[in-house]
Amino acid sequence: MKEIIAFIRPSKMNATKKILDSLEVPSITAIPVLGRGNQRGLNTLLSGIDVPTQLLAKGRIMGMKYVPKRMLVIVSKDEDVDKIVKAIIQSNRTGYIGDGKIFVCPTDDALKIRTQECGDAAL
C-alpha cells in the first residue's frame, strides 16, 4: 500500500475529483490548507508571469506568506499508484508556478475499525 499526498490549487479540486471518480478511487480525504513553496506565494500575485528562478532562490522577490491549497490524501494499492498520480498531474498541470506537489509514501498497514479487516481489504 502507498499513501499519496497531493497539494493542489483549490480551483482544480472539481476537475481532480472528476478524474479520480472515473478511476473509481474508493476514498479521498481533502483538507483546505495554507502554505508556500519556493515561489513564495507569487502564483496568486503574478498569475501566468514567469519569474526567473535566480530571483526566487536569492529571496529578492517578496510574496504572500501563505497560499490556499487543497491537500488530498489517498491510500491505495501499490498497482494503482501510477494511474492515480498521472490523473492528478493531468487535472492540475498548468505549466505555471504553484501547480502543486505530490508525495508518495509507503504505508505498512491499514485497519478498518468496524470489520477489523487489514491490509488491502481495509481499503
For the termini, the CA-CA separation is 9 Å
| Helix share bin | 25-40%
CATH architecture type: 2-Layer Sandwich
The structure class reads alpha+beta
Structure summary, number of beta strands: 4
Return the average pLDDT rounded to an integer.
85
Query: How many independent structural domains?
Result: 1
Question: What is the makeup of the main sheet?
Answer: 4 strands, antiparallel
Number of helices: 4
**Sequence of strands across the biggest β-sheet:** 2-3-1-4
What is the general shape? Answer: globular
What is the CATH topology classification name?
Answer: Alpha-Beta Plaits
Low-confidence stretches: 44-49
For the CA atoms, what is the radius of gyration?
17 Å
The top-level CATH class is Alpha Beta
What's the SSE pattern?
EHEHHEHE
Strand residue percentage: 15-25%
How are the secondary structure elements laid out?
Elements: E1 2-8, H1 13-22, E2 29-35, H2 42-45, H3 53-58, E3 67-76, H4 81-92, E4 101-106
Antiparallel strand pairs: 1-3, 1-4, 2-3
